[in-house]
Amino acid sequence: MKGQLSQSELSLLPTSFDIVGDILIFADFPEKLEKKEKIIGEEILKNFKHLRVVCKKTGSYSGKYRTPILRIIAGERRKETTHRENGVIVKLHVQDVYFSPRLAHERERINKEIKEGEEVLVMFSGSGVYPLNMAKNTKAKKIYGIEVNPKAHKYATENLKLNKAENIMLVLGDAKIVLPKMRKSFDRVLMPLPKSSEDFLGIAIPKVKKNGILHFYDFSHEKNMSESAEKVIRACAIAKRSADIFRIVKCGQYGPGKYRVCVDAKIF
Length: 268
Ligand SMILES: C[S@@+](CC[C@H](N)C(=O)[O-])C[C@H]1O[C@@H](n2cnc3c(N)ncnc32)[C@H](O)[C@@H]1O
Description:
8 helices; single chain; 4-stranded mixed beta sheet; 13 strands; GMP Synthetase, Chain A, domain 3; 2 domains; alpha/beta; Rossmann fold; binds S-adenosylmethionine
């Protein structure tokens, strides 16, 4: 971009971005480069032929559906794309549906934990990316997903067909209403909603089979990670169950010392 941007503008070029399918998303595009954003985006598209759209995040993940606000700065005027991860195809609209490609490793980690014949529940299934990962890469018997965002659920249903996944059942609705009505318990329950998973522990724990596994996601400072574990222990006590916290995993950083963590617990 030499010749198009001054030396000081070049030093401001953002280095943090996500790529979802053929869409590049800048997480934190500097205001000082706003006037040059179109030429920056076009230069990227010229050099990386697999990309078709460049966006910048103008509002962070928020609201009940945990979706971002994105503005297209170059390329095609669309926010729908098809992403590939761990052998799975995920079609989604990057603004209407929560999705983070940064969690691919975490999903791979969970895949490796799942034993043959397990029945697994993903309480907040979004585009279906966790259930699809499991259907493709594990010998789980059946995977259930609950999602409240109708647009995410619609994509997830379409993604089941795209991936020819047959052992997934998806339910549209609020987990607080849907889950207590499900006459089932599960070998493994995932709670990938770190912003407010804690509020759902009371309905999740009774649905974990004895000796089953809970994956509780939370936001935590690295100095206070044990607080996330204590949330599970407290909720178990209220539900008259008990927990063995056998691992706490950092699975993404969102600020200095601040992490998305997963508390892995065996529930008795
Ligand atoms: C952080 S996203 C994770 C989505 C997906 N598991 C993924 O990794 O891409 C959390 C999801 O929970 C959904 N959600 C929020 N509250 C919910 C509720 N009460 N019941 C079911 N889903 C809910 C949101 O719409 C969002 O899709």
